[in-house]
């Protein structure tokens, strides 16, 4: 089953084409990675899919429903969640509170019930706490649930942000460079986590510069350069594509080729 379909997607800024005519799909429980050199248009593509930018042309389908130009908060309620390159964690809140904050879209808002401390409010908070703890176990942070987020390592904060994104119960999770800035051990934890999430049936669209991570966990890879899609397919096929090697100037792509062959 196809969760996400991107058809001829493009956007112009000031009369200049930033992304032009990109098409691909993401299946249920599939990990699809979008790669390319700096300035290839990957984040711009993500911003269109996640409702931050309105495309100039093309369309985006989520489970067969046209969501082109739909605002981010509405997309979250429809089953799409996203992380960003830069951490967006509430540093002075506890780890548990950060994840619980992500659950507000899946819960009814009953202001009067909360203000009066009625039983419905208590039950909802308990359910939210239990679900948040389950997600913290998934990302390996349950032991630090009551610590302030500011006390976590950088890699742990990355995993916390993923847990909060999962709190909205997404069908499609967009991860924008989840391993950026992580050391080798943290990167290994991240790639294992991404595979585990996909194993639960959540589809994942990933932008990442770490080619070894991409080649290890992806079922399908889309390669962009200068705003255009230049290749797509299985990781091993993409790693041997001359257009991809040329786009990467024979550096990162050669490394990915060796990894895919090993």
What would you say this structure looks like, in words?
- The protein is an alpha/beta fold.
- It folds into two domains: 172 residues, P-loop containing nucleotide triphosphate hydrolases (Rossmann fold, 3-Layer(aba) Sandwich); 80 residues, no CATH class.
- It has eleven helices and ten strands.
- A six-stranded mixed sheet has the order 6-7-8-3-9-10, with helices on both faces.
- β4 and β5 form a beta hairpin.
- α6 runs parallel beside α7.
- The radius of gyration is 19 Å and the shape is globular.
Number of helical regions: 11
3D shape: globular
CATH architecture name of the largest domain: 3-Layer(aba) Sandwich
| CATH topology tier name of the largest domain | Rossmann fold
Gyration radius, in Å = 19 Å
- At the first level of CATH, the class of the largest domain is Alpha Beta
Quick synopsis:
With 262 residues, the chain is α/β, with parallel strands linked by helices.
Topology:
Layout: E1 2-13, E2 16-27, E3 31-35, H1 42-49, E4 57-62, E5 65-66, H2 72-78, E6 80-82, H3 95-101, H4 111-116, H5 119-138, H6 154-166, E7 172-176, H7 184-199, E8 203-207, H8 211-217, E9 220-225, E10 228-233, H9 235-239, H10 242-247, H11 252-261
Question: Which terms would index this structure?
Answer:
Rossmann fold, alpha/beta, 11 helices, globular, 4-stranded antiparallel beta sheet, 262 residues, 6-stranded mixed beta sheet
């Amino acid at each position: 089953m196809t969760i996400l379909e991107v058809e001829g997607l493009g956007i112009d800024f000031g009369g200049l084409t930033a992304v032009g005519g990109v098409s691909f799909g993401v299946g249920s429980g599939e990990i699809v990675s979008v790669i390319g050199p700096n300035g290839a248009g990957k984040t711009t593509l993500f911003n269109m899919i996640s409702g931050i930018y309105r495309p100039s042309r093309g369309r985006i389908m989520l489970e067969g429903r046209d969501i082109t130009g739909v605002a981010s908060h509405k997309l979250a309620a429809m089953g799409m969640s996203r992380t960003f390159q830069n951490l967006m964690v509430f540093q002075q809140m506890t780890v548990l509170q950060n994840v619980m904050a992500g659950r507000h879209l899946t819960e009814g808002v009953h202001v009067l019930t909360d203000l009066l401390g009625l039983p419905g409010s208590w039950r909802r908070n308990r359910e939210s706490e239990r679900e948040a703890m389950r997600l913290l176990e998934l990302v390996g942070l349950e032991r630090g649930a009551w610590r302030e987020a500011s006390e976590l390592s950088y890699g742990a904060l990355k995993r916390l942000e993923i847990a909060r994104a999962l709190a909205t119960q997404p069908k499609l999770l967009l991860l924008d460079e989840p391993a950026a800035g992580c050391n080798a051990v943290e990167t290994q934890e991240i790639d294992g986590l991404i595979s585990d999430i996909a194993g639960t049936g959540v589809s994942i669209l990933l932008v990442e510069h770490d080619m070894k991570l991409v080649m290890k966990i992806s079922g399908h890879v889309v390669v962009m350069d200068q705003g255009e899609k230049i290749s797509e397919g299985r990781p091993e096929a993409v790693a041997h594509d001359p257009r991809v090697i040329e786009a990467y100037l024979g550096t990162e792509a050669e490394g990915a080729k060796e990894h895919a062959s090993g």
